[in-house]
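Example 3.2
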Amino acid sequence: MNPTPFNTAGAVQTPFTQGLPGPWTAILVAVALAIYPLIMSSLGQDFYINLGSRVLIFALAASALNLALGYGGMISLGHAAFLGIGGYVVAVLANNGVYGAWLSFPLAIGMAAATAALIGVVSLRTKGVYFIMITLAFAQVFYYLAISLPDFGGDDGLQMSARSTVPGLDLSSALSFYFFVFFTAGLAFVLLYRLVASRFGRAIVAIRENERRMAAIGYPVMRLKLAAFTLSGGLCGLAGALLANASTSITPHTLTWHQSGLLIVMVILGGSGYFWGGLTGAAVYLLLEETIADHTEHWNLVLGALLLFIVMAAPNGVMSLRQQLAKLLGRKPESDATPLAVTANEGEAK
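Structure, written as tokens:
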């Protein structure tokens, strides 16, 4: 796969390259995320370092879903299954004395990806609401397996006596674990960029827009969609492995359809089809949740109202506010202001 170059202001843009991050944007995001825990550590705020780790983990999970949903048009209500499988693989291995991340993390990714491939073979033969319901049904199967099997801890889940081990790095401290998550998620985001900016990514977007035409000109539609769904599931499994380490436990709640719905909310909130949509949506949701919960026991009601307001103000997600502001000021939006999903739909409407 040969990814297109990073977007620049003078580059010619197409619906298939818009929505990707420019070089300075990526650098600024990476620097900000690297400096954040250092500032919190100097202030003695380990809680906010742990919150930052949680944001990055869910950003990875939401971005993995965005690959299937935003770029591939596959609305899945079953991604909680992949998140939970990744977490359970790490927890089961830890309960059997295997703490090495070099083994548990690849196994978590592999198991989640293999499960996604099996689910995809069945579910991708359907479309629309049928696809949504089949992915939901598979996720519920794994949820009931988790609560039914004693080896998985039943309703209580599994506890880990310690986090996974990485040679030369002590993950027991909040700061070191944050940088481990930062490095791991960073590699995953690089992979995601290379995927969506490559011919493979362009083909996935084109299949979403007109599957019949892509099949007619010879593209292996089913195989490409299955590959995207499998990769999405594998990355979600990686997020699950990190999540289990963050809380040193995993429960069946991770496998519920509520968790799948939460990931979809994060993607839509941040911007479906925007590269930073998953990161933005996860950050906004979790920060709002934490802030409001500190002030009222009815935080669900307040959070729901705020999320509704945000979605109404920015139907294409928080990332689209930049584009809307540019239109209000009468300026031409920058090259990376419009996501693949929006530009393709607008072009189709014209």
